[in-house]
Write a structure and sequence with these properties.
The chain is an alpha/beta fold. It has 16 helices and 13 strands. The protein is globular. The structure holds glutamine.
């Protein structure tokens, strides 16, 4: 008899091999867990085994080998004792390494936090644990979530699961690669200007950035606080809806979290109909420079939506050209202030080379931060400095207001806005590292929803001629997550036939 050591579960003395990664959704895994066809321990062991086999992909910064197993066994005992399982019972998850998980390393993929251990749980983390999710570990990212390729990580790059010579996108590159490569069933990421949606698009998974304030930011290391939002990456919309339901909602620890009631997203999704749905197609999202492969995949999906009864409405968002400029002024300004706390005195790395306090600050920050983070701190300090504040920061705030108005006007006329998630498919590792402006352009379509604070989702749309994944982005009005998930689910279903 084989021993059910790593895969499977012994039932009636018979070994049943169940490959957990083959479950198409959490609902299916949940059924097998609750029917005791498979134990939590076996499910988690399988994922840990895959993570070990794929160590060279560099997806995880920290793997909770013992912690995850211990927790899985605890959940198995809970079920045996007849206690009722939480809504996410046994869901194997990856957490981006800028979210606090108490007692575990929290690095933000930065040298400056390389020796830091989180002292409390983020609210989202706490809510997931309360519903019996299992954390497999903390995943790779661009340092402090600044980047679009996961290459700005002190722990090194992550290959795209669809083509190892290419990037998985960023900054939540580890989260997207984990879900796409079956190294976690669902992952949490964070999105300041596209960091959930763009990597989701590059890795052929669903990536939802909710409305600003929908999920508490307590325990999410701040980058651009008025933009930052936790997001969910998963293979399908049902899993994203379920996790969003668990983590969304008011939190006293974050004053910017919304009081807006949290609906049942699964039910909202079910009410969505493509027939009669007005989809706004901004001409600025289909510029001449748009990659041909990306354009044709996205157009095919839009044509199918039209055939299914949707009305495609041509719209224009003329200020789109200013999105990247406004975004990089506002977020670097906020980052320069937020990152002031990493000074060698209070958190993490302290330079050994320090004659006095001033040198200690300078050397700790110079040695601890990577070059992109340093660039942004300098840019942010500059735009906030006396004499330049009105010219840059104030102006960008005004542009932000114009964006908000324009997107609201558009969403008064149409139900949702659609276009590509990224102007190009996943690019080669190293290709854009010498040209920060080129890299910033990766977010040209994702940044507007972040400026406006509106929810947006990237849904897998198919593959270009070279077999690279293409994401389609849907943007909705405030708190329209249910509608976005519902339309995205239809788009996924259409492709499956
Ligand atoms: N790529 C964008 C940036 O570098 C977005 C990052 C993010 O959303 N965290 O700022």
């Amino acid at each position: 008899m084989r021993i059910a050591s790593s895969f499977g579960y012994i039932r009636s003395q018979q070994f049943i091999e169940i490959r957990v990664v083959h479950f198409s959704s959490y609902q299916n895994l949940r059924k097998s867990l609750l029917d005791r066809e498979i134990s939590c321990e076996a499910a988690v062991l399988e994922y840990l085994e895959r993570i070990r086999e794929n160590q060279h992909r560099n997806v995880y910064i920290t793997v909770f080998n013992d912690g995850a197993l211990e927790r899985a066994r605890e959940l198995d005992r809970k079920l045996e004792a007849g206690l009722s399982p939480g809504r996410l019972f046994g869901l194997p998850m990856a957490i981006k390494d800028n979210l606090s998980v108490k007692g575990s390393p929290l690095t933000c993929a930065s040298g400056i936090l390389s020796n830091y251990t989180a002292v409390y749980n983020a609210t989202a983390v706490e809510r997931l644990l309360a519903e019996d999710a299992v954390f497999l570990g903390k995943v790779n990212m661009d340092e402090f979530a600044m980047g679009s390729s996961n290459e700005n990580s002190a722990f090194g790059p992550v290959p795209n699961p669809y083509d190892e010579s290419r990037v998985p996108g960023g900054s939540s590159g580890g989260s997207a690669a984990a879900v796409a490569g079956d190294l976690a069933m669902v992952a949490l990421g964070s999105d300041t200007g596209g960091s959930v949606r763009q990597p989701a698009g590059f890795c052929n998974v669903v990536g939802l950035k909710p409305t600003y304030g929908r999920i508490s930011r307590y325990g999410l290391v701040a980058f651009g606080s008025s933009f930052d939002q936790i997001g969910v990456l998963s293979k399908n919309c049902d899993d994203a809806a379920l996790v969003l339901n668990v983590i969304a909602g008011k939190d006293e620890a974050d004053t910017t979290s919304s009081h807006h009631a949290v609906p049942d997203y699964a039910r909202e999704m079910d009410t969505v109909s493509i027939k009669g749905l007005k989809i706004g197609i901004p001409k600025e999202y289909f510029p001449e420079s748009l990659d041909q492969g990306v354009a044709s995949v996205v157009r095919n999906r839009l044509d199918e939506l039209q055939e299914a009864g949707a009305e495609l409405v041509a719209i224009t968002l003329p200020e789109s050209d200013y999105a990247i400029a406004a975004y990089y002024i506002l977020t670097t300004a906020e980052a320069s202030s937020n990152l002031a706390r990493f000074d060698g005195a209070r958190y993490g790395y302290r330079s050994a080379d320090a004659e006095d306090l001033g040198h200690m600050y300078v050397n700790s920050r110079t040695e601890g931060f990577g070059s992109e983070v340093q660039r942004r701190i300098m840019l942010g300090t500059y735009v906030l400095s006396a004499g330049y504040y009105d010219t840059y920061y104030k102006k960008a705030q005004q542009v932000r207001r114009v964006f908000l108005n324009r997107y609201q006007e558009a969403l008064n006329k149409v139900d949702i806005i659609a276009g590509p998630t990224s102007p190009f498919p996943p690019f080669g590792i190293g290709d854009k590292m010498d040209d920060p402006l080129e890299m910033y352009l990766a977010d040209v379509f994702t940044v507007p929803a972040s400026i406006a604070g509106m929810p947006a989702i990237s849904v897998p749309a198919g593959f270009d001629g070279s077999g690279l994944p293409v994401g389609l982005q849907l943007i909705g009005d405030f708190f329209d997550e249910g509608k976005l998930l519902g339309v995205a689910r239809k788009i996924q279903k259409m492709q499956k036939g």
